[in-house]
Design brief:
alpha/beta; Rossmann fold
């Protein structure tokens, strides 16, 4: 764990700009009226072709897995929970997959026996996008099954793809409920409610909060220690959910787990007048260049964390003051800064100077190994790709996402139907467009920033613990940006003692990399133990 304070000068770079919300998504037209019988009732898919959208009952199956030498018997439930509007009419079905540990194997024709809810934690998990299903954390990290990679690096290998038992699952520490927000997975808006009614920061958080309330009520889990975990935009959702659950529903959390966090979008979206990302991305660029052997030997000898500390110290104490001077910076000083920035990031001094010292993800990913006609990934810069041409300032695709999309899609579609026995003809939306996405009041006249919501939750709930996992090779939500966000949240001493950060030598989805998955499992195990011990639950 590394807790570092950023210099005040870093904070002064920040400037606020607006996010414009695009127009609403078009909706499908209704069926035409029948001239003899009046308005025709629109045919549903099931009426038209025997299409099955949702089975009548949840699919329930029973399994076992060995984790850390201990056999865990568990129930798997795949189903939906319906949300209702203020007229008590169903507005959406949210699909979920839940795993609940049992006290022993289920006997034939007998009801399963579960531990006392007060002695068993429950964790609600979701991914980001927005527009992503929960498949990534489910089949990559927490669930009892995970995708089988071809090697420890995280390469998928050739199709077809399959799942294996996940010996690194956290099912020995907590039950898990994987939630697909509206428009993702099998979750859909219902009745007269339109999907766009859920496509927004506040609307999305409200629907997920209502799901959690209904789930713990129907499954009698109010007495259980409770955790939420999100990845990427899922961390934005988690920071929004924590105070919402607490103040609106009276649901106090024991822990929030953030994987590759973005709480303050100003740290990621560079624009004229916002140079903050140009500072905060530098360590991730340096880590990427080091991984691909684009740096001098002097920068590859020290351990990774020590190298990151060196780069971050330079950014805070040298690069930030230079950027604050802007055009008033002398030519000599500007050239010296460009030389050092190039030395850290594997780019030529000329390229850095032509970029006005401002490096962005697209140009960097294209330029770093242009001489080898290779690009590097955004989600995980360890992965490389080949564009049609080496010219240009932008890469044509993200080789990291290209590597993982097929393996997770195939694995989930096979698993949910064949092993979990949930039968639906709806497409399982792994990652879909939900634009325009409304940020409402959080996006008016400023970048979206939900960090203070998490600060509020941690302040009002003096037992709430927060875990942050960051990957060095993440060019989507770089670690230094997350560190900056938390170091400027103005947390009190008590709250800071309940916040911890962990770094991994992988990317946005650090669990793709087996050594990082193993370390993440150990770190999360210790986090759960601390939180549950404080809650009076035995390990």
């Amino acid at each position: 764990m590394h807790q570092r304070s950023l210099a005040l000068s870093l904070c002064l770079i920040a400037a606020l700009t607006c996010i414009t919300v695009p127009s609403a998504l078009a909706q499908p037209a209704h069926a035409a009226d029948d001239e003899t019988t009046g308005p025709a009732k629109p045919e549903t898919p099931s009426e038209a072709v025997g299409f099955v959208d949702y089975p009548e009952d949840d699919a329930i199956t029973y399994h076992s897995i060995t984790i850390q030498g201990k056999t865990i018997h568990y129930q798997a439930r795949a189903g939906t929970i319906g949300l209702v509007d203020d007229k008590q009419e169903e507005s959406a079905k949210l699909f979920f997959i839940a795993y609940r540990a049992m006290t022993g194997p289920k006997a034939d024709d007998a009801e399963p026996i579960f531990p006392d809810p007060a002695d068993r934690a429950i964790t609600f998990s979701f991914n980001g996008g927005p527009g992503s299903s929960s498949v990534w954390l489910h089949l990559g990290l927490y669930g009892p099954k995970r995708v089988a990679y071809a090697d420890d690096f995280g390469h998928p290998g050739p199709p077809p793809y399959n799942l294996i038992d996940n010996a690194h699952s956290l099912l020995d520490k907590s039950d898990f409920v994987f939630i697909d927000p509206v428009s993702t997975g099998y979750s859909r808006a219902q009745g007269d409610t339109k999907a766009k009614d859920f496509h927004g920061l506040e609307e999305d958080a409200s629907s997920v909060a209502n799901f959690i309330r209904l789930y713990i009520t129907r499954n009698e889990r109010w007495a259980s220690p409770k955790f939420i975990t999100g990845e990427s935009y899922g961390t934005t959702r988690a920071a929004t959910l924590a105070p919402l659950l607490q103040t609106e529903h009276g649901i106090s959390l024991n822990g929030v787990i953030l994987v590759s966090a973005v709480l303050n979008f100003q740290t990621l979206r560079s624009s004229v007048g916002n140079d903050l990302p140009h500072l905060l991305y530098i360590p991730a660029f340096a880590a990427t260049a080091r991984f691909h052997k684009q740096l001098d030997d002097q920068y590859t000898i020290a351990p990774m964390r020590q190298f990151m500390d060196t780069v971050e110290h330079w950014v805070i104490n040298e690069f930030t003051p230079a950027m604050m001077m802007g055009d008033a910076l002398s030519a000599e000083r500007r050239h010296a800064i460009a030389e050092q920035l190039g030395a850290f990031t594997g780019l030529s001094t000329e390229f850095v100077e032509q970029s006005n010292l401002r490096l962005d993800v697209g140009p960097f990913n294209k330029e770093l190994m242009r001489d080898r006609r290779l690009t590097v990934g955004r989600l995980d810069s360890r992965f490389t790709g080949v564009d049609r041409t080496a010219a240009g300032a932008r890469y044509s695709y993200d080789p990291a996402y290209a590597a993982i999309q097929g393996i997770y899609t195939a694995a989930m579609n096979d698993y949910v139907r064949r092993e979990l026995k949930f039968t639906s003809d709806l497409p399982y939306e792994i990652l879909t467009s939900v634009w325009p996405w409304s940020y409402g009041r959080a996006g008016q006249a400023q970048y979206v920033n939900v960090a203070d919501r998490l600060r509020s939750a941690m302040t009002e709930n003096e037992h709430l613990r927060v875990f942050l996992a960051s990957g060095y090779y993440d060019l989507a939500t770089p670690p230094f940006a997350s560190d900056y966000t938390f170091n400027t949240m103005q947390l009190g001493e008590s709250a800071r003692s309940r916040f911890e950060t962990h770094y991994y030598e992988a990317g946005h989805m650090m669990y793709l990399h087996k050594p990082s998955l193993e370390q993440l499992r150990r770190d999360l195990e210790a986090f759960y133990d601390r939180a549950l011990t404080e809650a009076g639950v035995s390990k």
